[in-house]
Records
---
Amino acid sequence: MKTIRRKVDVVVAGSGPGGATVARQMARAGKSVLLLEKGRNQKMIGNHLAALGFADKFGLSWTEEGLNVVRALITGGSTIMYCGAASRPPEWLKSKYGVDLDKYVDETIKELDIAELPDEVVGTAGMRILEAGNDLGYKFEKMKKFISPQKCKMKCGGTCMLGCPHGAKWSARNYIEDMLIAGGEIVTRADVQHVTHEDGVATGLLAITPKGRLEVEAKSVVISAGGIGTPSILQKSGLDEAGQGMFIDPLVFVTGVSRFKGTCQGPPMTVGTYEFLEEGILLSDLIDPWGMWLLMTLLRNPSKLLNFLQYRKQLSLMVKIGDERKGFISMDGRISKPMTDQDRLRLNRGAIMARDILIKAGCTPESIMIGPVRGAHPGATARIGDVVDKNLETRIKGLYVSDASVLPDALDRPLVLTLVSLAKRLSEHLETNVYGNA
């Protein structure tokens, strides 16, 4: 196999919100940057056929306990498949772990114009759910979004989670473009094997590409392959403490049929309630894309399959919980994630609230169903305090991690704003303390 050798200041593995942000910031700081992505730079997004091309194992990855976990392998990573919802990080990240992200959060909100959507873009389904939730005393509000209302078409049929072809939803691809303009480079279909290091200091990494072995020498190595990919790379690099304990944001969809426009006829996660975050429960309007809806209904509620004929009139709420850290990621990527009794109690409590809200919003009680439990946003597999320090550096000097795996506990809320802010904080640390660009 041919060997390709490169030498750069910074090499970043993973092009999601953490990796793309670090790559962009360091390229803008005048450093030579090489960004590696395991997936392709797939141009076609926003439909089921496209998703089959970038969802790992066609979206049919499962934990050993049977929990479905969807992972995007594509430039932009998880931001291609996320809902564009934004939430500030919890206060405990600063008070307990000494990680203050306030200035980076404020900067990102201003830079990307993150804000609530106007009523007409939220759509009638979202507004009905907001009103019903508030009528029942659940304190629903509009959620801040990484979505431009001027570009949002609102007619994507529930497929917004499969990628936005209109450019309305911000993704890490925007930062990748900035990086390329600043002189950085990207290599796709690069499967990172391990980090190279000598005497406890990182020297680079090895990746396998269609063109051969890629050996990269770098002063700083940043692993941003996500809560599943990162711990496997770290374990192969000698950090056997990675991958132990994780959160995976278990969630269920509660749906019902109404006589009004359904949740699929507007952007996802436009309204929700943070009132129950102390209990680890988040409710927000969200429905599966129709293809996933059919699959999940077949698996859990086959008697409700005829509801699909009224898919466009279905109202749906996602119940997501902050789970307890259990399970592990193995070196070969196997996932074990048992659900605890506390996890199941939280999901059930959220589902009961969701049912009440949907009935209040106009759904018939007999049409309401609860989907199977799934997992999103795996993290805590290289967490602050155990695998990395508060500057996101491992015990191998010069080796950093910047993705959801560093989060020490479940956030109980959307992650992307926190991950971008963490990456900006890491970039400032590198500029100031490693490269001396104070």
---
Amino acid sequence: MQKKIIALAVAGLVSGAAFAQTNVTIYGVADAGYVYSTGERQGALNKNANFSGINSGVLSGSRIGFKGQEDLGNGLKAVFTLEYALNLDADEGVGTGSTLKSRQQWVGLKSDKLGQVALGRQYAPGFGASVRADAIESSSSASPLLILQTAAGATIQSSSNARLNNSVTYTSPKMAGFTASGIYSFGENTTTATAAGNGVSTGNDGLYGVGLNYANGGLNVDAVYQKKDDSTSTASQKDINEWMIAGSYDFKVVKVMATYQDLENKGTTGTADLSNRVWSVGAIVPVFGKGAIRAGYADLDWDRKNSGGSDSWMLGYTHSLSKRTTLYTTYTRTDNDTNTVSAAGFSSTKAKGETNTVFTAGIRHTF
């Protein structure tokens, strides 16, 4: 009997020690707000249609995540992140409907001296660069920069286009304020068209990107380059090239920021040129101790002959009730030229040649 008790105690100590080696953190964002958008819905029967309702993830995408690490010794750690989208305003759990929607999910190794290598679905360097230079934290409903990046078809942005499947990443340690990062996403084409022998290989649509960030005191600067090899979305499987310069400086009484990016895409099937440029400026002014007035402007211009563009501006206010809970309200207006290549704005209330306005008010809690 005594031997059994000792054996159970030893087993408990061993399993407890093994479990303690892996530290797991549960984190997330619960964000919901009211959204009212005016504009046009595309289609002959859907003119003058507005949107009014409660949306999830207005200021920041609602999510739940799990991240952890195991100390392997000599400064080496096994690390992982599993993060999934939440839709707070519907009868849905993790994801949409019955589909699990991952924002990012990866596993890797991290060295204090050499940096981190990871495999899975991950953010490209353009994601962080865009977020750090956005006055409204890359809100999908309110950010002029993100609204125009999405209309431009850019992978240098802070939404779905910047999350790459089948990817391997490297992130360097921070040295003298500099951090370097790189990503390669394998194309892994397995479509019927590929199998039919139309010249498309599993290497088509592979995307690689490199980024360099400098952060020191109130200064932050990002430089990013991303390229999609032999894109199957172009007429002759051409490469798509993008680059971005972004920066911000915090003067304490005001934080200012600006971005400029260029996308070279010589066209989808046919001869259409989808090359464009997006630039933006923004400012954050602290007020009332825990509040901030936020303002931003962005402009999108297309290279195609006789095509116009879009511009967007935003004015917003955020107020921190605590370290984790924030109230917010924003107003964003986006104007589309009649000959712009792609309409910019909120959801389905946007259209070429029309003005789209969006008002939001909500609450965000992080945990």
